[in-house]
């Protein structure tokens, strides 16, 4: 049931984005190539072979986008720094790019001038390509020191103004999609061992960066360093079945616990160690595919998060499923489970993203119980639509937003320590291997228009009302928000249609007229030649 009430005073409302998905300017002003530049430039890796080369042109539109943040009345903006934009090869001793550093300085200053808190992620998947080519990226332990150098540069240059740092955004996807399935950059298919090794190095890197901040910068800058982990919730198909309950527990432990357990409790989840160890033994491996932490490493890693960032989009039903003996280990088969969905769950966009708000409250309570009720910031939560035609009246996103934020309100009443919410995302943007075919934004972008204009969807108006009211005061008021949002989007639709027509006319003028003019000249020349030949 829906719960009417307001959030605690001081609760932070925001939106997020990431560098590669929005900035564009992939090779401008001294930026080095990232693994995503290299990956998208290979044919067949991304839907329709689209790239983030120009994306939303966010590099050139900082002021415009900050105006959108002001329209939404958000308290904070979560964005990521592109490592190769400020350090083209990823190696501090080789080269720094002052123009890149200036770009992020200007962005941070503009946000603060407009009373918007910057929350900054150091890594949202765009590893410098040089580090991938030279060392194999996150397969290589040398990444720990290279990333620590980069993080310390960021603390030095921006830490006087940035007080909320995220080391890694959704490292699960970096490891699993980058090094096991190969769906994401760098596109490697190394089996479970590859994913486990990448994650192992990321966890160690995160701990090193936290200690660097703690020892060198904290006393002066008084900021916080955390990590952002994205996880779905796993619900047992039959809550009375012990095997289903165990499978659902494994689902969450292999997803969230893989990273959260070492950071909050000092080691990988026992269930993960047992299952991966047993599967590795069946395959005749001398050691488990899941690496181990030494006693010193466990102590060093435990407690290295001042807050836990949580990304959450959807839920799955989970049942036990034993996989037959396989020659190659795989993260997915190591878990011995199958994922199911309820066909009645709304699924407006991505085929993986079903709207199941109640799963969010359960996940938040799981975190409270498992990890000692840590300080939580929700760092990503939102829903996409598949682009068939322009959809500004996105009532399904309003329903999703309303449902999921309401579950946070219920979780707060359960005693969960959530301090802020970041809706994903500000803009329609490049969605990794799905290109521009999926759209998560509160603002629609016309990517066919070279100016990349932004248009508010109905959900932007609705979210602004939630922020202004700090929750859901009463049924009548909340119902009025919906109607007002729908009225606004109808007007915006007319504006978009007019702009599209103008753009179309401009295209006709730019392309057709010169073509016709050129053809006329060519025909005149041909006729002239005929005339001269005849005479």
What is this entry, summarized?
Helix content is 48%, strand content 13%. The chain has 535 residues and is an alpha/beta fold. The protein has an eight-stranded parallel barrel, surrounded by five helices.
Give a verbal description of the structure:
With 535 residues, the protein is an alpha/beta fold. The chain has a domain at 5-234 and 357-364 and 375-473: Glycosidases (TIM Barrel, Alpha-Beta Barrel), CATH 3.20.20. Helix content is 48%, strand content 13%. It contains 17 helices and 17 strands. It has helices spanning 19-22, 35-40, 62-72, 83-86, 98-113, 129-135, 143-158, 171-179, 191-221, 242-265, 270-282, 295-301, 331-334, 358-370, 395-413, 458-469, 475-534, and strands spanning 5-6, 12-16, 76-80, 117-121, 164-169, 224-230, 233-236, 308-311, 315-320, 337-340, 376-380, 385-386, 418-424, 438-439, 443-445, 454-456, 471-472. The strands form five sheets. Strands 2-3-4-5-6-8-11-13 form an eight-stranded parallel β-barrel, surrounded by five helices. Strands 7-9-10 form a three-stranded mixed sheet. Strands 1-17 form a two-stranded antiparallel sheet. Strand 15 and strand 16 form a beta hairpin. Helix 8 (171-179) packs antiparallel against helix 9 and helix 15 (395-413) packs parallel to helix 16 (458-469). The longest helix has 60 residues, at 475-534. The chain is globular, with a radius of gyration of 25 Å. It starts with a strand and ends with a helix.
């Amino acid at each position: 049931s829906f719960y009417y009430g307001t959030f605690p005073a001081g609760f932070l409302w925001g939106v997020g984005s990431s560098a590669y998905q929005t900035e564009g300017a992939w090779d401008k002003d001294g930026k080095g190539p990232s693994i995503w530049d290299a990956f998208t430039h290979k044919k067949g890796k991304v839907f329709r072979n689209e790239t983030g080369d120009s994306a939303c042109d966010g590099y050139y539109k900082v002021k415009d986008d900050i105006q959108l943040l002001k329209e939404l009345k958000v308290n904070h903006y979560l964005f990521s720094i592109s490592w190769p934009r400020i350090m083209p090869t990823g190696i501090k001793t080789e080269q720094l790019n002052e123009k890149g550093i200036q770009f992020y300085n200007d962005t941070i200053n503009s946000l603060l001038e407009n009373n918007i808190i910057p929350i900054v992620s150091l890594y949202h998947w765009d590893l410098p390509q040089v580090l991938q080519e030279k060392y194999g990226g996150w397969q290589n332990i040398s990444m720990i020191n290279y990333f620590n150098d980069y993080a310390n540069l960021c603390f030095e240059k921006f830490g006087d103004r940035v007080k909320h740092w995220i080391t890694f955004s959704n490292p699960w996807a970096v490891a699993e999609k980058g090094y096991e399935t190969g769906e994401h950059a760098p596109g490697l298919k190394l089996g479970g061992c590859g994913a486990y090794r990448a994650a192992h190095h990321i966890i160690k890197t995160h701990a090193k960066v936290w200690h660097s901040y703690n020892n060198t910068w904290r006393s002066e800058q008084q900021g916080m360093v955390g990590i952002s982990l994205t996880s779905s919730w796993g619900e047992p198909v039959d809550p009375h079945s012990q095997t289903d309950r165990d499978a659902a527990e494994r689902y969450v432990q292999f997803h969230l616990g893989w990273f959260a357990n070492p950071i909050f409790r000092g080691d990988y989840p026992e269930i993960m160690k047992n299952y991966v160890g047993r599967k590795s033994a069946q395959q005749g491996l001398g050691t488990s595919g899941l690496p181990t932490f030494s006693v010193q490493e466990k102590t060093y890693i435990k407690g290295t998060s001042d807050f836990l960032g949580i990304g959450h989009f959807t839920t799955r039903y989970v049942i036990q499923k034993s996989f037959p003996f396989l020659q190659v280990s795989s993260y997915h088969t190591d878990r011995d489970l199958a994922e199911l969905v309820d066909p009645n769950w709304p699924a407006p966009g991505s085929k993986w993203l079903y709207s199941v708000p109640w799963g969010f409250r359960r996940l938040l309570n799981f975190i409270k119980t498992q990890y000692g009720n840590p300080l939580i910031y929700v760092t990503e939560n939102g829903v996409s639509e598949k682009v068939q035609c322009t959809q500004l009246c996105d009532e399904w996103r309003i329903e999703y937003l309303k449902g999921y934020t309401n579950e946070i309100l219920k979780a707060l009443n359960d005693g969960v320590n959530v301090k802020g919410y970041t809706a994903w995302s500000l803009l329609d943007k490049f969605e990794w291997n799905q290109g521009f075919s999926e759209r998560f934004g509160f603002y629609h972008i016309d990517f066919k228009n070279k100016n990349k204009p932004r248009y508010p969807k109905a959900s932007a108006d609705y979210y602004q009302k939630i922020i202004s009211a700090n929750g859901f005061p009463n049924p009548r008021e909340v119902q009025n928000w919906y109607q007002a949002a729908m009225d606004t989007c109808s007007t915006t639709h007319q504006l978009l249609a007019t702009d599209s027509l103008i753009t179309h006319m401009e295209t006709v003028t730019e392309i057709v007229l010169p073509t016709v003019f050129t053809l006329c000249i060519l025909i005149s020349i041909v006729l002239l030649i005929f005339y001269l030949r005849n005479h």
